[in-house]
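quick q for whoever's on today - can somebody do inverse folding on this one?? i tried earlier but teh output was garbage lol. tokens:
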């Protein structure tokens, strides 16, 4: 019988195993992400929270309304709901170079009132590292700045974070009659 103690045998076994074991892969820190719907007005790129945009659509047929501001294109029946169609570029006194057929609508629901916002293009889901958010409002036309809460930069492109809630609360946006 061996005069080595069981504890000594276990320690030797542990040492041999540790010498031959391959370590676990290095754990990568997983960054938290923020995602939203990307859209474009002119050459400016924006992103809004998924919670603020309920639907994306092609510009539907709509009925013009009398005595409304020029940025109110009309009203459309979308799945049984009458939704005002708002030209967001025109609201900000910003000309669109895109034909209406290629433009898209972001449907928002602000305090139970749906609105269809016509934008130049929808850029799909955008994902950003949450820590990369910068609260500084980027260089934009002055009319847009009150609705921007900061920005992200991805692939050398600035994505301004647009607050649909701030837009819905804005007095000028609520006053559509001329």
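ok took a stab at it. sequence:
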């Amino acid at each position: 019988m061996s005069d080595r103690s069981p504890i000594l045998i276990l320690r030797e076994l542990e040492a041999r195993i540790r010498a031959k074991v391959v370590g676990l892969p290095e754990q990568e820190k997983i960054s938290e992400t923020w995602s939203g719907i990307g859209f474009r007005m002119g050459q400016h790129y924006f992103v809004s929270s998924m919670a603020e945009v309920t639907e994306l659509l092609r510009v539907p047929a709509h009925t013009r309304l009398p005595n409304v501001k020029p940025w109110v294109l009309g009203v459309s029946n979308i799945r049984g709901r009458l939704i005002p169609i708002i030209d967001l570029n025109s609201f900000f006194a910003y000309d669109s170079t895109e034909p209406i057929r290629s433009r898209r609508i972001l449907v928002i629901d602000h305090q139970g009132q749906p609105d269809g916002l016509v934008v130049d293009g929808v850029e799909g889901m955008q994902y950003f590292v949450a820590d990369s958010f910068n609260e500084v409002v980027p260089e934009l036309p002055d009319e847009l700045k009150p609705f921007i809460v900061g920005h992200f930069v991805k692939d050398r492109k600035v994505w301004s974070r647009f607050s649909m809630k701030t837009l819905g609360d804005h007095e000028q946006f609520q006053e559509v009659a001329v």
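fwiw The helical segments are 6-20, 88-91, 164-169, 171-174. also The beta strands are 33-41, 44-49, 55-58, 72-78, 81-87, 104-110, 113-119, 121-129, 148-154, 157-162. so keep that in mind when u check it
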